[in-house]
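The authors assume throughout that readers already know how a fold can be written as discrete tokens. For illustration, here is how one protein appears when written out as sequence plus structure tokens.
>
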Amino acid sequence: MKLIDSKFAPSVEGINVTKFGVIYFFKDFVVTEINEGEVYGLETSVELTKLIFEQYATKTNIHVISNRINNYSVEPTYWFDFYKNEHADALKSVSFVYYNELAYSNAKLEQTFIQCDSECFKNLHDAIDHISKTQNKRTACIK
């Protein structure tokens, strides 16, 4: 389910439509919906990180929910490159919402490379509920 079609849409504090997908900014987390057929890699991640820091601030705890409504791929070396980024320690959790077995398998594979909390969920509601219960909330205010 697209976030914009969910009960969570009224709580969105900002939306950014990019060439690679849509980013929804909430008070304590970010939801991404990457475009069909996109190849997500370091360049995309750098752009996403820039947008997140423009929205919140550079000193923040970042929680990302990847709402995998579309099929796309992640470059195999992406997470290795990501953790060389100076802002990598700001990423506190990644949640994957999957809608089919391929998306689930891909998310489980990605989890083996992620150095922060990560979970897989069958629906957006459970992912958002999980983030809302975390102790490591975002530490900066929206600009």
